[in-house]
Every structure is written in structure tokens, then in C-alpha cells.
Amino acid sequence: MYSPKIKEQLIPVIYKRAKREHKPMTAIINELIEESLYKIYYCRNCNNQIEVEKGTKEAYCDHCQSEVYLITSSL
Ligand SMILES: [Zn+2]
């Protein structure tokens, strides 16, 4: 699969963070991308945590096994 290239200027920054956190650079990059694309929501019915793509309004809750509207914070 096509792998996009990381901007050259970002490499030293990622390198430093990877060293500081004792993780491979790919792990740092993947974490950052995940943080920016996904968000933790809570099921409106049972307050179960659901990780979904940002901006998503509905998801399937494994806990109550139904389609649910999502809320952004726990009550
Ligand atoms: Zn639920």
C-alpha cells in the first residue's frame, strides 16, 4: 500500500520525542495521527467508552449492542 512520506523538517522533532519516550519513530507518528483522527466518545445509553473517527455522531456500542448517538464527555 502507498505510504506517504513524512516532511523532512518534522523528522528531527519526531526523532527527539522518540528518543525521550524510548519508542520507535513510527510509534510516535502513529500515535499523533491517531490522536488527531480519533476521539473517545461515550455511549449515551450506558456511558461505555467508544473510540471513533472525529466528527462521528453515531456508532455501534458493543456494551449495549445497539446503534447509539455519541456524546463527547462522560456524565
Ligand atoms: Zn452503550
Layout of strands and helices, then pairs:
Elements: H1 11-21, H2 25-37, E1 38-43, E2 49-53, E3 58-61, E4 66-71
Antiparallel strand pairs: 1-2, 1-4, 3-4
Zinc ion (ZN) binds near residues 43, 45, 46 and 64.
Structure notes:
The chain has 75 residues and is α+β, with helices and mostly antiparallel strands. The chain has one domain. It contains two helices and four strands. Strands 2-1-4-3 form a four-stranded antiparallel β-sheet. Helix 1 crosses helix 2 (25-37). The longest helix is centred in the middle third of the chain and has 13 residues, at 25-37. It is elongated. The mean pLDDT is 89.
- What topology, given as strand order, has the largest sheet? 2-1-4-3
The molecules bound to the chains, other than polymers, are:
zinc ion
Please provide the ordered H/E string of secondary-structure elements. Answer: HHEEEE
- The domain tally reads 1
Number of helices: 2
Mean pLDDT rating: 89
Beta-sheet strand percentage? 25-35%
Low-confidence stretches: none
First-last Cα distance = 41 Å
**What does the largest sheet look like?**
4 strands, antiparallel
Into which percent range does the helicity of residues fall?
A: 25-40%
Task: Let me know the number of strands.
Answer: 4
Task: Name the shape in a single word.
Answer: elongated
Q: Structural class, judged by helices and strands?
A: alpha+beta
Rg calculated over all Cα atoms: 17 Å
